Here is the input.
Amino acid sequence: MANAHEFIETTPTIQNYFRGIVLFGRNVASYKFALAKCIIELASEGRDRVSLQDLAVPFSQHLCDHLRAAPRQSTSAQSKFLDACRQYNAGSIDADQLRDTTVRMGFNNVIEAFHTVGTGEVGVRFFGDNRKSVTPGIVFTDELNELAAADGSDALAETEARWRLVETAWDLSLSTSLIAYDSSRQLLVPSVRRVALTSARDALNGYQKGRCFYCYRSVSIIGGADDLADVDHFIPHALQRHNVIEGLDLVWNLVLACSDCNRGPEGKFDAVPAVTYLDRLFKRNEYLIMSNHPLRETLIHQTGPTSELRHAHFQAVYDLACSARVSGTWEKAPVGDPTF
Here is the structure.
């Protein structure tokens, strides 16, 4: 049994994995959303596999429906497949021609990329790629059937909402991080903007002693230095932009990191750190509180008046983060000697 100050690694649910694909998967075109809707709908009908011929019909229809309201469905300037969808909407080609074009062109990238979030695949697959069989298609997994039976309508609604958000951002030439979906009001609204955090360096460095929070590499807090520390959101700020967790700009969630750990080739970026680092962050905050640091009252106000409540706060936020960012946690081998 875990003791009072031991943190637990969170295991995402099937719903979390699907939501992670919809919210955080790559968006260079809207094909992912059309495929997500198709597999939920077909699995809800009791199907366990579908040929490309049969998948092409609802897949292209979803895209045709969205093209009528939002002409831009890709970040690319040209797409022969989307042109075929537009031709179908204009009456220039018939349903059979659209289906055949979809089989040839519509699935070139979306099937293999569907389960990719960040730099790797999520831990659960919702279908298997069976395109090299005698009857090319995809095979549904037990996880998809479970999702469709238990949460199909919610998954469809969330996919549609995210699709509308992305195509609106493309139409306005905005980053999708600048708008968000308010489910309670069913409106697209400006998301929470990042605030300037550089003034936090001095306050945070007292505990870290000039070392990166993650790898212990030496860092500087002097402006213009080559090794100037980044102020990093431990729980990634992307989760605030997507309305998953609020208050991630608060000081309890901020650490100093070297540029390699924060944004280097194998950097953290928007990943959730491994649970080992959560323990390190909790101990950092407890140290500042118990040592009557100037941030003491701020940290107590943000995370709770007792150590037990603060521990519960950290675990709850970490659970939410891991449930949303389902591509796995991030960690980095130490470079310097541990100093805190």
In short: The radius of gyration is 23 Å. The chain has a mean pLDDT of 87. Residues 200-330 form one domain. The chain has two domains: 14-190, 200-330.
